[in-house]
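= Protein in question =
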Amino acid sequence: MKINTKFYNEIEVAEEKIFFFPQGLPGFPGERRFVYLQEEEGFFGCLQSVDNPEVAFIVITPYEVCPGYEIELDDTATEELELTAAEDALLLAIVTIPPGRPEDATVNLQAPLVLNTARHRGSQVI
């Protein structure tokens, strides 16, 4: 399927690459379908809403900035994600870059995104 994106214009995305966020994201409860886009080189990626091209987040794996980073998922989060194996979990953190001030960028390690790569479900864990 073709989707319009904030950073990449129109792209082709396979249906099986779409992650469903049952609760949406804080501040974006209606946005429930996202695709994770990552360049071949570099460690930044993009979590792009499938349905709204203006809703996209620059993301990074937390290990890039905090090598020993760990989270503990409670039973509710594990059930929502339908997560049965730790190796199916992909952790991401949202990066905020103020316009014109990349040196002031921050990474949200307090509320990571967890993607279940096997079941294509996602959640922001707060």
In short: The CA atoms of residues 20 and 121 lie 5 Å apart.
